[in-house]
Amino acid sequence: MQEENHGVWIFSEVPKLAFELLGKGSLLAKALRSELVAISIGSAEGNEDYIKHGADKVLTATDPALANFHVDTYTDALSELASEHKPDVILIGATRNGLELAPRFAERLKIGCVTEATRIEPDADKRYLLMDRLTLGGNLVETHVSRVRPQIATVARGLFSALPADDSRKGQVVKVEPKIKDPSTKLLEKKPKEAKGVGLADASVIVSFGRGIRKKEDIVMVEQLADAVGGVIGCSRPIAEDLHWLPEEQYIGLSGQKVSPRLYFACGISGQIQHLTGIRNSKIIISVNNDPKAPIFEFTDYGIVADLYQILPVLTETIKQLRKS
Amino acid sequence: MGADEAILITDPRFEGSDSHAVANALAAAVTKILDYDLIICGAYSEDLFAFQTGPRLAEICNLPQITYATKITLDGTKIVVERDLETERQVVEGKLPCLVTVVREINEPRLPTLMSIMAASKKPTATWNAADLSLGEDELGFNGSLIEVLRSTVVSGERKRIMLEGDSKEISLKLAKALQQEGVLKVT
CA A262 to CA B121: how far, in whole Å? Predict the structure, then answer.
């Protein structure tokens, strides 16, 4: 029953993403005349930051067993809190941790979950949420509605904007002690990935390439364009995962980096959903492909049907000249 | 490809299933099989990218889940799995039975040899429908789903989709001009 459920909750183990969820959550809470609650699991540090970024309340679970993310313990904690407090909406950050937590938790409560929603808005009567997500090659937007409460969606990094921190905001921090079972699996070892990638997530200009580049040596052509426009290079998944021409950290897509530059060049990239999901938040997308039917052109602001090998050097030279003059 | 036995789970009544209903049907099949040590699922499908079936199935079957596996090693009744996360790689140990979801890096599928293709036709296969799995009407397909797809719309109009034509030089000039006007390319 919807009357029983109240409140917009957000959770992410990554603070920056949690703040973005609060940004979206505050709009939803206002529309639904509801309170905005941040779920803080693991550490009591930073609870005030949730309030500064828009939370009315923070539920904080600081059991030492929750110090690091584990899908078992975090599912226990979140399930107990949600069963007890019955929120109406829960937004969960779509990190790899969040993406395995959300369905496990949802199944325990027998509720739905919309993966990586791209739009979340109340319906006209504000009775339920309309949650959009991209499917089938990025060609379809499906609008989903949850039949049960709470209504849950996971949300990718960079999709919504965080509110600026407001030091004058006041809120309530409530300690909670959900019951947690011992985790069923044990972490033996972890090693950070080599950070060879050039901060794609924060880049403002990205020149990216795909299978249209025929040899590894030809990447230089892409690098030259990147230099001319003051950008960094990225690639599609096959370039990193199958050909290993660039490190994995430099591929852009659903399972790779998600980017939001002001300028994105897609050179010889066909435009699979993998890739499109990673570049949705770009301000301007320019695509070059020799196939006029390539799906990337549907997701393009300025499209060029041409042979990469002819157009890229000319484009690089033209932009260089213009920027010099 | 290497399986000793195959079971196809199919029924027109599965139409309209969400991740929960799919996991429910798989859980019913797993329960019917009973004798298993390890369940391997893809971390996501290439068309829907929902990332949900594995964890939901693990929850229904009350199994530990180990996600995003790039390598799986059996060690007696234990399993050691290498996992791929955004910023780190992990090695995780679990006890069997267990559910593991795998990412593409796990393996290059082998090419079946002529011998294995011939041998495959002699391996046992079965087809199970909703009745075989004792699934009721409210447990499967559209009725058994928690999420409803209200509508699907073709993506369009979100981008300008301006096609630039001409020879390389003309196209380059047009693009450079457009980018200046958009304010995304600074010319000093």
Answer: 55
